[in-house]
Amino acid sequence: MTKTSVLFVCLGNICRSPVAEGVFRAKLAEYGLEHDFEVDSAGTAAWHSGNPPDSRMIKTAANRGIDISRLRARQVTMDDFHQFDFILAMDYENLNNLQEIDPGIGKALLGLYLEYAQDYQDKEVPDPYYGGDEGFHTVINMVEDAAEGLIKSLQNQPVK
Ligand code: 4NP
Question: Which of 12, 44, 105, 106 has the smallest CB count inside 10 Å?
């Protein structure tokens, strides 16, 4: 079976998208689906390329049993639009930036990750970078909700 590939995207790739990747991987493992997917994350900006996730995000994720400490930030590349089935943005600004650079000839379906959320009505995962601890918890709650929804949606309507 061909794998379904998902790229999570935020601005810096040190807070929201790495934890979206970590939480999605954990959910796949929970459902025994880890071998059916390729998962990665990236930022629209290159400021933090090569860096580990923000220490506050690493700590909040670790408290929920999710280790994202070994992930390293990278910027979205043109190749990503060809490699991934889904490129899922954390907010509208990320999505707009992706749409601006999308060569349009790749296979990637671009969208907002929270479109898959089942409990949250919000469309954007708020950037926690300049805020307090609560923001990091909210990010995890939101990406967990969306991960459940995305897995359900793909099981009902497989892409391959
Ligand atoms: P992220 O958060 O997009 O969720 O990784 C941010 C990380 C860094 C910055 C902004 C947002 N920054 O301005 O450096």
Answer: 105
Per domain, the residue ranges of the chain are 4-155
Considering 16, 85, 91, 145, which one is annotated as catalytic?
A: 16
Is 10 part of the annotated catalytic residue set? Answer: yes
CB atoms within 10 A of CB 131: 12
- The edge-to-edge listing of strands for the beta sheet with 86-89 is 37-43, 4-10, 86-89, 109-112
Q: Tell me, yes or no, if 72 is annotated catalytic.
A: no
In the chain, which residues have pLDDT < 70? 1, 158-160
pTM above 0.85, yes or no: yes
Contacts of 125 (CB under 8 A, 6+ apart): 10, 16, 20, 90, 91, 113, 114, 139, 142, 143
Q: What topology is assigned to 4-155 in CATH?
A: Rossmann fold (3.40.50)
Distances (CA, A) of 148 to 34, 107, 110, 151: 14, 23, 19, 5
